[in-house]
Amino acid sequence: MSLPKAELHLHIEGTLEPELAFELAARNGVTLPYADTEALREAYAFKDLQSFLNLYYELMAVLRTEQDFADLANAYLARAAAQGVRHAEIFFDPQAHIARGLSLGTVVEGLWQALGDSERDHGISTKLIMCFLRDESADSALETLQAATPYLDRITGVGLDSAEVGHPPLKFREVYEAAARLGLRRVAHAGEEGPPEYITEALDVLGVERVDHGLRCMEDPALVERLVRERIPLTLCPLSNVRLRTVDTLADHPLPAMLDAGLMCTVNSDDPAYFGGYAGDNFAAVHRTLGLTEDRLRELARNSFLASFLQDDEERRARYLAEVDAYEFGDAVS
Ligand SMILES: [Zn+2]
């Protein structure tokens, strides 16, 4: 679906398609424990968040050089552009790479090779958001922020991802306070597998401006009311929720109810190589399965630009919003 949109919840490591994984493995002399791309694609049929994360970290071994990260980002941007993405705020997981012996510079400079030329090459403006792994220690997060000091001109904000349950936002208060002092924007995954209380804590303790997922807010009417009142954007990832069994089927997804409640929802792809689709695929799926009208789809697209960190370029945001308003659906959505 080519409806113009911003993607606000996208892990660049989660865009590694089997074909590129094998190409990078060959280039770097890494042996993958899969016979071919088909066997690897079959391994993408994981059961839950933890089994997905195990595969996700295993495959990162093929990413070694700046060129690898540039190739990864360019492959994502090309696919995203084909699905109407005009602006992308991209997550990356530095600790997962530093733990493998890479320097933060290799990761950031490599990604920047692609992001810096993305407007020219793909027609997509970009921002970079550095995520902390919440199953690592708070000290490790602080060290990562410290290591990022030379690259802060390229990093717009910080996020919090990986296994949620048992790792409440409170654990990361100190690093989020330090990030705020550095002028970094703040987001965090909350309320995906974790309880609604994690969403409240992310807002009150970490000072996040957007909640990634936030699905489980629907269990707490007072929290929904607050999110509506404060216009807190939620970056939902419908196909991801199905693959990780956060919802039983896409037909059970609460997105229509969330929109009806007045929540500021956006639709994103999370880890598209693993979850069966990029941003446009997610839009098409919620249109088809949840029966969202064209007005609702346009609202989701408008929300994505309104929720994006384009405060330094309001003229650009206005231009993107005008593109959404002018978009004609035609037969593409049927
Ligand atoms: Zn995510």
From TrEMBL:
It holds the Pfam family A_deaminase. Keywords: Hydrolase, Metal-binding, Nucleotide metabolism, Zinc. The keyword Zinc applies. The record marks 213 as: Important for catalytic activity. GO terms for cellular component: cytosol. It catalyses: adenine + H2O + H(+) = hypoxanthine + NH4(+). One of its GO terms (biological process) is hypoxanthine salvage. GO terms for molecular function: adenine deaminase activity; zinc ion binding. Residues 4-317 form the Adenosine deaminase domain. It is an enzyme of class 3 (hydrolase). The keyword Zinc applies. Its cofactor is Zn(2+). InterPro entries: A_deaminase_dom (IPR001365), ADE (IPR028892), Ado/ade_deaminase (IPR006330), Metal_Hydrolase (IPR032466). The active site is at residue 192. HAMAP family: Adenine_deaminase. Catalyzes the hydrolytic deamination of adenine to hypoxanthine. Plays an important role in the purine salvage pathway and in nitrogen catabolism. This is Adenine deaminase. It comes from Streptomyces yokosukanensis.
